[in-house]
Write a structure and sequence with these properties.
Shape: elongated
Largest sheet: 6 strands, antiparallel
Number of strands: 24
Strand content: 5-15%
Distance between the termini: 56 Å
Structural class: alpha+beta
Strand order of the largest sheet: 13-20-17-15-14-23
């Protein structure tokens, strides 16, 4: 640990380490998993497509015409499409399309590390880079096409460039201009720094504008730098002093008797001269946005709310496309977006370290010199980007929060300060424990575990992070190393927070064992932070791609296909077949009967159909042989009419049968029928179960008619003191709703139930069953049309047996 800390104390070593780690995480295996569908697939297919029958070109707009959408030659917010096209030109593959975004992600990491290194030291910069790499907003945007990573890259580069241009003062002091104060570096180094800063500033402004537009991509970071530097006003004051004093000095040298006044206080060396440049850039952007978004016209009386007026003219937003904004400003707000909606995106997108950013801001604002400046700069950057993002989302459209590098920078610098004694130098070992260390550690554990727990229930917020809302459902069947993929958020988050809390609690302790515990805690936190970065890139994204990308199905086809085999596809999969199975010519199918007909061919046929069609295909195939080779995709299933070494994973084969299942454990002693359509013919239920244990029940039904609506199966286990426990559930794992069951089907429903808890009273329990629909307070049970009187009750339940709970 000490060796690593010493190595990271040199900026060139720290920068190389950051580049190597970031490159390995962001570039490795870019094309080894498929594009998430439908969003990524649509973006990939759109880029570089040439229409075989192009429509007539649209007439050129008139000079005064109000465009409502982006023209084809628009520059603002066009980086995503341009990057995909550029990547496709480099390599027509998933790797090629994603490569530009990975490069932008690497630039974001390097620029963020550079900002922190300049103001808080090399080691703090390396920590900030690691913190940034642990954030899903960075890793996922760098490795997916649903990305606005150019906005974050542009902001980080622009701010780094403005900081580097501060070396202009050093360069000027090496010249005989009479400026006060010695230069901090030689002329050559200062010139190199200025040149790098100028390139970074220009590149950052261009990337920010092309990706986020003038408001989010340029005004937010540049305006934040200007505000943090007091808009350059101190520099203007120093310039006035310098000129005034220079004039007085010149007058004194020539013996002038003019009474110009006494000398002002001496010129003070400042480092915020570039804030004046940032303020000028921000002013130009603001002027362009106001000019393009709003217009003046005669006010219309009687409107509610009344129109805003200036000098007798109403200020209105006509909704025209703004080349500076990169969108059309709505006259009315999007009420689906509230002014704190970005906080949710920030919390989930910067998990886990982003939760501690507010504490880091307060801590650095109370620090000394450059660290205080870093705290002010990052706070302004993060806040300005939040405000711009909220305005854009409410008035224009969806955008991703691009201020997360600021959170990484401030957290990295803060961690370097509070854990300095744990991380390395001997002179830091006796540093006092930070004020409120135990409280901060407890907050870190509770906040991290709480957010990770929320993500177990609302995982769609994370799967849909890059597209907004909850449009990408989390595939509940997704697993990583034999555990549910989302459970790793809780495991890794808990380990990281616990390690950090231990390191923070004992940081600066003089006791040997406490110092060792602090070091172990810091190591655990550092390793877990790196594990989070690897998890987003190679765990989360890859595991979910199995269920959200069609590549896994086409990989199965490629592995099994032989000469003469055919591939039939129903549904819109875009260019997935061309990308993932180029050796097979896909035959399109417009309807389900075509899929059924293809599966009846004598030669081997692979058929891909929408997952929603699986129940009807199973019904129409009847007793004809067909097999499901891959059902992991949430939108499509892969079927074939021959196994030939493959494995049948058809989940309906044992659940919906076309002949009466053999070996029914207990047959119904009497006829039990609901609505003359569902007949209970038997069941398998254990006679004795233990309290708190899990047991299985299997029910057998014969379908005698079409069923309207989606019904659930009720199971009530009633004892002497009322309901002991229940087992209500959708039948057959919710694979096919009851509305898709057809006459002649035999339904086999197996369900696992927990037998109450250790406090549930023992005794004999009556087992009641039936069908119901509705929710709490509005239940409706399916009517029983045939059953012995002694087996039924007035709520259309049937008592089928009893069990002993011991």
């Amino acid at each position: 640990m000490q060796f690593l800390a010493r190595a990271l104390s040199r900026w060139w070593t720290a920068l190389v380490c950051v580049a190597i780690v970031a490159g390995a995480i962001l570039f490795a295996g870019l094309g080894s998993f498929g594009l998430w569908e439908p969003h990524e697939r649509q973006l990939a297919d759109k880029a570089g497509h040439v229409d075989a029958h192009p429509a007539a070109p649209a007439p050129a707009p008139k000079p005064d015409e109000c465009l409502k959408q982006a023209p084809k030659d628009a520059t603002a917010r066009s980086l995503q499409g341009r990057a995909i096209e550029l990547g496709k030109d480099l390599a027509d593959s998933d790797t090629g399309r994603k490569l530009p975004f990975a490069i932008l992600g690497l630039l974001t990491v390097l620029a963020t590390a550079g900002i922190t290194m300049r103001l808080a030291g090399p080691r703090a910069g390396a920590i900030s880079a690691l913190v940034l790499l642990s954030m899903p907003l960075l890793v996922l945007q760098s490795r997916q096409l649903d990305s606005e990573i150019g906005t974050a890259a542009g902001g980080a580069l622009a701010i780094y460039g403005l900081l580097a241009l501060g070396s202009l003062g050093d360069l000027a002091r090496t010249l005989p201009l009479g400026l006060a104060g010695p230069p901090r570096r030689g002329a050559l180094l200062a010139a190199i720094d200025v040149a790098v800063g100028l390139v970074a500033l220009v590149a950052g402004l261009e990337l920010g504008f092309m990706s986020g537009g003038g408001l989010v991509g340029v005004l937010a970071p540049v305006g934040a730098f200007a505000v943090a530097g007091a808009l350059g006003i101190p520099t203007i004051a120093d310039g006035v002093r310098f000129v005034h004093n220079a004039v007085l000095g010149f007058a004194a040298r020539i013996g002038s008797r003019w009474s110009i006044g006494r000398r002002l206080w001496p010129y003070r060396r400042t480092d915020n001269a570039t804030a004046l440049l940032a303020a000028a850039i921000a002013a130009v952007v603001i002027a362009a946005l106001i000019y393009q978004i709003f217009s003046l016209r005669d006010p219309q009386p009687g409107l509610m709310p009344p129109e805003r007026e200036v000098l007798g003219h109403a200020i209105v937003a006509p909704g025209c496309w703004s080349p500076a904004l990169g969108g059309a400003w709505r006259a009315d707000d999007d009420l689906r977006v509230v002014y704190d909606s970005a906080f949710e995106q920030i919390a989930y997108g910067t998990f886990p370290w982003g939760l501690l950013a507010p504490i880091a801001f307060v801590s650095l604002l109370g620090a000394a010199a450059d660290r205080r400046r870093l705290g002010a700069l990052t706070l302004a950057w993060a806040s300005a980007t939040w405000i711009a993002s909220e305005l854009f989302a409410r008035k224009v459209g969806f955008t991703l929060y691009a201020g997360f590098p600021a959170l990484a920078a401030v957290v990295g610098a803060w961690l370097d300060g509070v854990l300095g004694g744990v991380l390395g130098r001997r002179d830091e070992r006796d540093a006092p424990v930070p004020p409120g260390a135990l409280l901060i550690g407890a907050f870190a554990v509770l906040a991290t575990v709480d957010v990770a727990k929320d993500l177990q229930s609302f995982t769609e917020k994370l799967t849909s992070l890059l597209v907004g809302g909850e449009s990408i459902a989390y595939p509940a069947q997704s697993e990583l190393l034999f555990l549910p993929t989302r459970l790793w958020l809780l495991i890794l988050g808990g380990l990281l927070a616990l390690g950090f809390a231990v390191a923070l609690a004992f940081a600066g302790s003089r006791t040997r064992y406490k110092r060792l515990a602090a070091r172990i805690g810091a190591i655990v936190a550092a390793v877990t932070t790196l594990a989070f970065a690897l998890f987003w890139a190679f765990g989360w994204q890859r595991a979910l791609s199995i269920n959200l990308s069609s590549k896994t199905m086409f990989d199965t086809v490629q592995a099994l296909a032989k000469p003469g085999d055919q591939l039939v596809i129903m549904g819109d999969l875009g260019d997935a077949a061309k990308d993932y199975a180029p050796d097979l010519k896909a035959e399109p199918a417009a309807s389900r009967p075509q899929i059924v007909s293809a599966l009846e061919r004598p030669n081997r046929v692979f058929a891909i159909a929408p997952e929603s069609e699986k129940c009807m295909i199973h019904r129409e195939m009847g007793t004809k042989p067909y097999y499901v080779l891959d059902n992991r995709n949430v939108r499509s299933i892969l079927m074939s009419n021959k196994l030939d070494g493959a494995t049948d994973v058809n989940p309906l084969r044992t659940r919906i049968q076309h002949a009466e299942p053999p070996n029914i454990a207990t047959r119904a002693p009497s006829r039990i029928v609901w609505e003359n359509k569902i007949q209970l013919i038997g069941w398998s239920i254990p006679k004795t179960v233990s309290r708190g244990s899990r047991f299985e029940i299997t029910m057998y039904y014969k379908i005698t008619g079409s069923i309207s609506g989606a019904w659930k199966i009720l199971f009530h286990f009633d004892g002497q003191y009322g309901r002991a426990f229940g087992g209500d559930h959708p039948p057959i794992d919710n694979l096919c709703p009851t509305s898709m069951w057809q006459a002649g089907d035999y339904i086999v429903d197996t369900y696992s139930i927990v037998a109450g808890n250790p406090m549930t009273p023992k005794g004999t329990l009556e087992v009641w069953t039936g069908f119901f629909t509705g929710s709490d307070g509005n239940f409706k049970n399916m009517q029983i049309t045939d059953a012995p009187r002694e087996m039924r009750d007035q709520t259309d339940r049937v008592k089928i047996t009893t069990i002993v709970l011991d």
